[in-house]
Amino acid sequence: MNFPKKLIAMLALLPALAFANEGGHKLDKAPERPSLTSLQNGAKLFVNYCLNCHSASSMRYNRLKDLGLSEEQIKENLLFTGDKVGSLMTTALRPADAKEWFGVIPPDLSVIARAKASSAGSGPDYLYTYLRTFYKDETRPTGWNNLVVANVAMPHAMWQLQGVRTLKTAEEKDPHDESKTVHKVLGFEQVTPGSLTPLQFDEATADLVAYLEWMAEPAAATRKSLGVWVLFLMSIFALFAWRLSASFWKEVK
User: Fold this and answer.
1) How many angstroms separate the Cα of 45 from the Cα of each of 76, 119, 133, 137, 161?
2) pLDDT tens for residues 112-123?
3) In degrees to the nearest 10, what's the CA dihedral of 138, 144, 150, 154?
4) Domain range for residue 247?
5) In 46-144, where does DSSP find H-type helix?
6) Which of 2, 12, 13, 139 gives a 20 to 30 Å CA spacing to 96?
């Protein structure tokens, strides 16, 4: 079958266009934060800064017991008024209000750490970079923009922790067309400090991302440990089968 040349060219550009829509910013590697302390801190940050607008409708509060939290700790520190330990982690924000205020309905975050995986990096890499690259932009309706998602609708929920930053750019000649110039991102300029140092904010963000990764598959650690045992037992069975086969064919010969 012969495809039109224009169609082939458009299909070839789809991956590049998809990446460009995300801002084209290189993703940073998300640190590994598997400890229960990190996951507990991530759960606290998620409830305080994400659950106001986003839901996690596939997760119940009582599943946080797997992170070493007691039912009393969940009730006292992570539950909003009216919620129960067995309730789903949903937001009180009405979709109609979200649409009016932000222009879009905030996505459910239950499996966001898996949904954002791409050839550019893992889901945690995407989230870790995204949450750390907000900057002040008065041209945007919310007053914020982002390097990973250009013209993002979401405001910077954790700006009080990170502080206010602006983007530093420079004009450079376009390497493909010397008659044009392009914006090159040089970094960020800290306008006002946050309640956390830059290192502390990166660590807190890593904890939040670790929790989002755990929430996407709470049984991942169990699955991996069981997988080791399954492979071990299969190796033993394979050894017995090999010796049994050798013994059988020895008698046949």
Assistant:
1) 15, 28, 17, 24, 11
2) 999 999 999 999
3) -140
4) 219-253
5) 71-77, 95-102, 112-115, 123-132
6) 139
Task: Answer whether 46's CB lies under 8 Å from 55's CB.
Answer: no
pLDDT tens digits, 177-223: 777 877 788 899 999 999 999 999 999 999 999 999 999 999 877 78
Q: Which residues pair with 134 in a beta bridge?
A: 146
d(CA 18, CA 24): 9
List 185's β-bridge partners, or say none. 169
Domain check: are 126 and 157 in the same one? yes
Residue type, 197: T
Is 229 found in the same domain as 119?
no
Secondary structure, 3-state, 171-185 = EEEECCEEEEEEEEE
Higher-scoring residue by pLDDT: 132, 245: 132
Is residue 252 domain-resident? yes
